[in-house]
């Protein structure tokens, strides 16, 4: 009798659940990419710092490419060309691979900045106490440099979480893709995008709060 | 004892140390003076292996600092160093600053390391500041913290590179006082300094460096009263 009503107000509590699940997938793909990408990025940052011209000729340009080519192009290219070299990855795995490399490329510069922030005099003081190169790196450079660039790293992490929405172009149903599906069905873009936005906010707000409290504790 | 023989140091093509011969005996306090750029800091860095050398040798208690097989990290435990900039580890309390190296380098237990640290901090007059972060310490206190940090490794020698130059004038005294105390306790010290009063009163010998050459070395009375070298006399006339 009233087909229009069922068509336009199709948003049900179930759909909220659907969005919630999608938000968890956003969280999962982000956490995975950011953690692995950060470890790799710190390693690359160290290479950039120590490698001098050798690194400037090899690692640096590769990282530059991943940093400057738009993520959506990287995703589509990788997803479509990986099978040619025998890599059959599903959208999720492809997304993780590209987001991880992208994170690593961004974190590498942050990490190099962190090492530079510590400075030669501080490191000489550490070495003069008998610390080895690795002890200096672990007990002096990591905590001091890490704190110096922590805000920049949080920025990268939050950015990657938002950018993970682009994995939707491969068909992975994360938060943005889920919203599009619901919008097509319910024709309620305003409502659904608001809810999706709220989910993104709910994912990143605790992170920025926690980061801010950490920074405050370190500042004393 | 520290034995330096025909030491040459270059930075690229810049010849910074031009054949230094110098012996420092156990228990001796040597002050090193000279104009900016004369190679005083570089000499200290060559002694504890923070800078490589191009010719000659440095031996500490018979161990060649720059030989390939030398365990430099082990050797540096014998050579405490205090820098112009105090370089406190900002993320650690005073106690943790001092306890870190005994713990990770010497493998002391946490309790032992903290014990040593507390003792050394009391020694330099910071017994009240154990749990304070460096940002809450004055420059003079941070420099004394740096001295305690070096002493906690129980070194045989202490190298001071203008330990008071970066301090506000009113804070210089407390650091010199600490250095004087170490000298009285019999510590072997090489002090690069611009504090002529300290060099005269505390040191057994004073070395004057001029453009990478050790122009003159002798007891304070000789250097300050009866300098043989024209350059020494000129330098002293200008700083006084
Ligand atoms: N890492 C470096 N690279 C290139 N040149 C250097 C380096 N360190 C020092 N020099 C140069 O070596 C010379 C000696 O420097 P050094 O720091 O030993 O002098 P100094 O006697 O300690 O002077 P100051 O009283 O200013 O501390 C200077 O000309 C300086 O510019
Ligand atoms: Mg100097």
Oligomer classification: heterodimer
**Mean pLDDT, all residues of chain B:** 96
Biggest interface, chains and residue tallies = A-B, 19 and 27 residues
Structural class of chain B: alpha/beta
User: Rounded to an integer, what's the Rg of chain A over CA atoms?
Assistant: 22 Å
Q: Give the beta-strand count of chain A.
A: 0
CATH class of chain A: Mainly Alpha
Order of strands in the sheet with most strands of chain B:
6-7-8-3-9-10
CA-CA gap between termini of chain A: 68 Å
N-to-C CA distance of chain B:
32 Å
Helix count from the secondary structure assignment of chain B: 9
Domains of chain A (count): 1
Strand percentage of chain A: under 5%
Number-wise, the strands of chain B total: 10
Listing every helix as H and every strand as E from the N terminus to the C terminus, the arrangement of chain A reads HHHHHHHHH
Percent in helix of chain B: 25-40%
The name CATH uses for the topology of chain A is MetI-like fold
Structural class of chain A: mainly alpha
Number of domains of chain B: 1
Question: What would your notes on this structure say?
Answer:
Chain B: GO terms for molecular function: ABC-type amino acid transporter activity; ATP binding; ATP hydrolysis activity. Chain B: Keywords: Amino-acid transport, ATP-binding, Cell membrane, Membrane, Nucleotide-binding, Transport. Chain B: It is found in: Cell membrane. Chain B: This is Amino acid ABC transporter ATP-binding protein, PAAT family. The complex is a heterodimer of chains A (220) and B (240). By secondary structure, chain A is mostly helical. Chain A contains nine helices and no strands. In chain A, helix 6 (120-128) packs across helix 7. The longest helix of chain A has 45 residues, at 13-57. Chain A is flat. Chain A starts with a helix and ends with a helix. Chain B has 240 residues and is α/β, with parallel strands linked by helices. Chain B has one domain: 3-Layer(aba) Sandwich (Rossmann fold). Helix content of chain B is 38%, strand content 25%. In chain B, the strands form two sheets. A six-stranded mixed beta sheet of chain B has the order 6-7-8-3-9-10, with helices on both faces. In chain B, strand 4 and strand 5 form a beta hairpin. In chain B, helix 3 (94-104) runs parallel beside helix 5 (139-151) and helix 4 (110-123) packs across helix 5 (139-151). In chain B, 46% of the residues are buried. The mean pLDDT of chain B is 96. Chains A and B meet through helix 6 and helix 7 of A and helix 2, strand 6, helix 3 and helix 5 of B. The complex binds adenosine-5'-triphosphate (ATP) and magnesium ion (MG). Residues 40-41, 161-162 of chain B line the site of magnesium ion. Magnesium ion binds at residues 40-41, 161-162 of chain B.
């Amino acid at each position: 009798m009233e087909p229009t009503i069922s068509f336009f107000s199709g948003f049900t509590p179930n759909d909220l659940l659907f969005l919630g699940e999608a938000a968890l997938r956003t969280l999962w793909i982000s956490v995975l990419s950011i953690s692995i990408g950060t470890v790799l990025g710190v390693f690359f940052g160290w290479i950039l710092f120590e490698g001098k011209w050798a690194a400037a000729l090899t690692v640096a340009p590769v990282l530059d490419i991943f940093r400057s080519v738009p993520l959506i192009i990287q995703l589509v290219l990788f997803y479509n060309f990986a099978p040619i070299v025998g890599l059959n990855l599903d959208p999720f795995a492809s997304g993780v691979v590209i987001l991880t490399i992208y994170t690593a490329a961004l974190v590498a510069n942050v990490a190099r900045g962190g090492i530079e922030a510590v400075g030669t005099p501080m490191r000489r003081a550490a070495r003069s106490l008998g610390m080895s190169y690795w002890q200096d790196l672990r007990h002096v450079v990591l905590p001091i440099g890490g704190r110096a660039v922590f805000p920049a790293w949080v920025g990268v992490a939050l950015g990657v979480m938002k950018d993970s929405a682009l994995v939707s172009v491969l068909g992975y149903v994360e938060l943005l893709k889920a919203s599009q599906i619901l919008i097509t069905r319910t024709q309620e873009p305003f409502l659904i995008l608001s809810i999706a936005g709220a989910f993104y906010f709910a994912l990143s707000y605790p992170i920025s709060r926690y980061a801010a409290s950490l920074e405050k504790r370190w500042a004393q | 004892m520290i034995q330096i023989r025909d030491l040459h140091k270059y930075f690229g093509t810049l010849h910074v140390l031009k054949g230094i011969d110098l012996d420092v005996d156990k228990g001796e306090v040597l002050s090193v003076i000279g104009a900016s750029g004369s190679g005083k800091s570089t000499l200290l860095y060559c002694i504890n292996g923070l800078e490589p050398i191009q010719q000659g040798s440095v031996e500490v208690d018979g161990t060649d600092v720059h030989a390939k097989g030398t365990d430099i990290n082990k050797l540096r435990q014998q050579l405490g160093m205090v820098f112009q900039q105090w370089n406190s580890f900002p993320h650690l309390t005073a106690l943790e600053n001092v306890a870190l190296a005994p713990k990770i380098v010497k493998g002391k237990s946490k309790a032992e390391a903290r014990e040593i640290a507390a003792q050394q901090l009391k020694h330099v007059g910071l017994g009240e500041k154990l749990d304070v972060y460096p940002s809450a310490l004055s420059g003079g206190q941070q420099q004394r913290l740096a001295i305690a940090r070096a002493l906690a490794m129980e070194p045989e020698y202490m190298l001071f590179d203008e330990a008071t130059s970066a301090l506000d004038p009113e804070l210089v005294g407390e650091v010199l006082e600490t250095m004087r105390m170490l000298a009285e306790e019999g510590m072997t010290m090489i002090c690069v300094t611009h504090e002529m009063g300290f060099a005269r009163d505390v040191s057994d010998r004073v070395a004057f460096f001029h453009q990478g050459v050790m122009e003159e070395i002798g007891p304070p009375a000789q250097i300050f009263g009866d300098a043989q070298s024209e350059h020494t006399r000129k330098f002293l006339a200008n700083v006084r």
